[in-house]
Structure formats: C-alpha cells, structure tokens
Amino acid sequence: MKCLVTGASGFVGSSLVNELLNLGLEVVAVSKSGGFTSKGQVIHRVDFGYETIPRSLLSNVDIVYHLAGIAHQRAAAEEYEQINFAATIKLAKQACSCAVPKFVFLSSVNANSGSNDFTKPIASYADSKKRAENELEKQFFDSNMAVEILRSALVYGDGMKGNLPVLIRAVQRGLPRPPDVGVRNMIWLDDLVSFLILVGREPGNSVRKFVVTDGEVYSLSRIYDAIRSICGQEKVNSWLPLSAWRVMALFNDLFRRLPVGTTFNKLFSHQVFDSSNLRNWEVTSSFEDAIEKILSS
Q1: Which residue ranges of the chain lie beneath pLDDT 50?
Q2: Domains, the chain
Q3: DSSP structure string for 164-189
Q4: Do 125 and 286 meet the contact criterion of CB atoms below 8 Å apart?
Q5: Strand pairing of 186-188 and 154-156?
Q6: pLDDT score of 271
Q7: What is the pLDDT of residue 278?
Q8: Distance (Å, whole) CA 18 – CA 280
Q9: To which H or E segment does residue 292 belong?
Q10: Rounded to an integer, what is the distance from CA 199 to the centroid of its chain?
Q11: N or C: which terminus of the chain has fewer CB atoms within 10 Å of its end residue's CB?
Q12: Do 192 and 212 contact (CB within 8 A), yes or no?
C-alpha cells in the first residue's frame, strides 16, 4: 500500500510517517520545510500557501493523509482560509482526479464551534477546519474517492507544542493548583496515529466523520495533579481562586498579543465530545499513563 502524508515534518505527521514505514508501507512524505524523515527518507517540499502537490507524487497512491495546516500560529484569517480550507479542497480534487481511493483529513474538535464569521481572529482556525469539512462532504459525497474526516481532540506526546508544555514547566516550578473548573477531551499521540492507520485501511465509501478522543474527561486540576504526581511532588488540596487565574490569563494575553480571553478560555472552557462511534480501536494510554513517558524522554 502506498501512502502520501502531508505535514510529514509536523508533530503528528512525523509520527505517522515513522509508523507507516515500520509497517513496511511505501510512503510519500510532503511538508512545507522538506528535508528527511528520521529514517532518512526524502520529504518533498511543498508550501500549500502558494503551491500544489505535483501530480507525479500522487501516482499509484492508495491513501492521502492530509495533516498539513496552521494550528498553533497567530496567523491572519486569510492564511487559515488559504492553507486550512482552500489547499485542502485543491488537494482532495487532485487526489480524486488521480484515482486515489481514499482521502483522510485531520480536522479538530474545534471545528464543532466553527462559524462563518471571519472577522473574529480567534475563530479563524475553527472556521477554516469546519468549512473544509463541509466542502469535502459536499464535493465528494457521491465520488469514487472515500473521504474520512477525523476531528481530533487536543493531542499530547513527545515534541508537542502549545499550552500543555508551558503548563508542565509551570507546575514543575511551583504553579499553584487551579480550581476544578472546565473540562476537555485529549488523545495520546500514539493512539491518534493508530486510529489514522486503522481508518486508512478500512474499506470505505462516501464521506465519514469521526471524533477521536481517549474517552476520558480532563479538568485542568486533574492534569495538574498528574504532573505533580509524576514529578514526585505531594498532592495539594488548596487552590488559587478562579479570579486570580483570570488575571494571570489576561496578562498572558496582553504579553503575547492575543485576543483578550484566549488563554482563560483554553484553560477553563468546557469541551467534551462523544467518541463512542469508534470501533475496532483501543486506547492504550490516558494522560496519567502517558505523562511519565513524556517527562522521561
């Protein structure tokens, strides 16, 4: 089986490429930066901001895994539109015209809150993912190419970016315990990769959509306690009031030039989704299981 993976130099993409190669599959790796995989294979350089994949790279491909996109960057709404939406649809059309049997699109649970208002920078990521999902469903529902849309929860693992690594360092340095407010879903990187491979191998037709989480619900205080436990620190029962966290979050927004409310909402929002439709796939690690591996790596 021959797989093309975009975003092959990224957090999820590099792990997926390595696992596909470990399984003995042929992989065409593509990323904005190019270079080589950890196994020495060439990564083809393609910048989806202004380029499309050469048709030659799609020759005899069985699965396209489209993981490339803008996520943790503070980008203009137009960039999210071009890379997360327009480039996704262009690549799917290319794949279909090259008779690729399956197209797997890695979206996000944030797409559940997407709207059509691109005047709000904070919503641009979610909007671009949601619009890409809708257009894929519209254009390929009756096509010969199966489309799998995976809405992933927050992914954590070795090499992760975003707020979680910052939180881990802050807890290690004595950050006070947060109140038990807000919950979210997450997914261990290795488990997400195993699901990507599973859904790629399954026979399919039309368009399917999955929400991928580990089935657990995590509050910030649960994550905090797990980090302290692995670091050998005693569990604390006292906590810093929510009002104090709101002030600290505001200072972080101002320092990083983020829209006011961004940090607080990411830390204490309620984001729980139903992933009960996932079959023939088993979660191997909760956050408590995986954090020891992360901190010891």
Answers
A1: 114-122
A2: 2-152 (3.40.50.720), 154-185+214-297 (3.90.25)
A3: HHHHHHHHHTTPPPPPS--EE-EEEH
A4: no
A5: parallel
A6: 85
A7: 67
A8: 22
A9: helix 287-296
A10: 16
A11: C
A12: yes
